[in-house]
Amino acid sequence: MFDIDGVLNKHGDNIQNTSKEAIRILRRQGIMVCFASGKHAWYIQGGLIWSGLLRQDTLIVAENGGVIYKPSTRKTILEDKYIQDVQLLRSIFYNLYSKDEGFLNFAGLTVWEEPKETLFCLYPKDAKDVQRLAEILEEIVKVNRLNLYLVENPDSVDVLQKGINKSTGLKHICDWLGVDFDEIIAVGDSYNDIEMLKDVGFGITLENGKPEVKKVVKFKRGRGLITKNSYGEGVLEAVKCLINKRII
Asked: Same structural domain for residues 24 and 60?
C-alpha cells in the first residue's frame, strides 16, 4: 500500500520514474499494489492512468480513509458517521470568507478549498500559513464541539471525521481481499500515514519522512524500514531491500 505525495513523488509533481520501476518490480513478483492518499478518489485514479499504473485489480483508499474505491467496477464505500459535522464546518467557513481573485479570504489568510466528499480541506496560498490555518480550524472545531480532527500537510490542512484514517480505510481493503493487516506492507511519509504504518505487518518510510513517522517505523523494529534515499529513489531502494531480505 503506497501513499502517493511525498512517497511516489514530491508534493505537486508527477509520479517519478523510479517509483514506477519499483511498482513494476513488485507486480512481476506477484505483489498486489494499492494506493492510499488524502486526495479525491477520481483525482487519484486520473493520476494513476496518466502514470500508466492503473490496473484491473487496483484498489484505492482516498480522502485519508474516508473513501474506499475500486476503479474497475466503481465499487465505493463512503465513511459518513460524522459527515454532518464536516458539512457544518464547511458552512461555517463559507459564512466567514470573502472572495479575492479566485482565492478566499479567511481569518486574514488567503486560501482555497479542494472539494472532497468526506472531509474538509483547505490550501493556504502561502504554504507557510499551514500552521496558522490549522490553529484557526482547530478552534472552530473545538468551540462547536465537532467530531472532527485535523491533519497538517506540507501545503494544506485536512479536517477529518473522528475515527477515520488510512488504517480504517485499509481495513475495508483487507475485508474485500480476505487478508489480514499482517500481510500488508505500507509505505508513507507524513502524519496521515501514522495509523496505517502502525497497524500493517511491515511499515516503510523514506529518508524524507517526518520525524514522528520515522519513530513509528523504528518502533516496529524488525517489521519496519527507513530508507537512505527520498521519494522514488527511496521507494526503489525499499523494494530491492524487501526482495533481498526475502520479505516478499
From this structure: yes
**Residues 222 and 125 reside in one and the same domain:** no
pLDDT surpassing 80 at residue 102: no
Q: What is the pLDDT of residues 170-226, one digit of tens each?
A: 999 999 999 999 999 999 999 999 999 999 999 999 999 999 999 999 999 889 999
Checking if the pLDDT of 118 tops 90, the result is yes
The verdict on residue 117 lying in a domain is yes
179, 213, 152, 134: which is closest to 34 by C-alpha? 179
Alpha-carbon distance 27 to 40, whole Å?
25
| Residue where a domain stops, chosen among 126, 161, 196 | 161
CATH number, domain with residue 198: 3.40.50.1000
**Whose CA is closest to 79, among 93, 64, 60?**
64
Angstrom distance (rounded) from CA 119 to CA 62: 11
User: Does 12 score more than 90 pLDDT?
Assistant: no
What ranges make up the beta strands (E) of the chain? 35-36, 60-62, 67-70, 75-78, 98-100, 103-106, 109-113, 120-124, 148-152, 157-161, 185-187, 202-205, 224-226
Cβ within 8 Å of residue 162, ≥6 positions away: 82, 147, 148, 149
Whole-angstrom distance, CA of residue 34 vs CA of residue 183: 13
Q: Is 104 helix (H, G, I), strand (E, B) or coil?
A: strand
CA atoms within 13 A on the CB side of 47: 23
Query: What predicted TM-score, i.e. pTM, was given to this entire model?
Result: 0.94
Q: Is 18 helix (H, G, I), strand (E, B) or coil?
A: helix
CATH assignment at residue 113: 3.90.1070
* Domain boundaries, position 87: 83-161
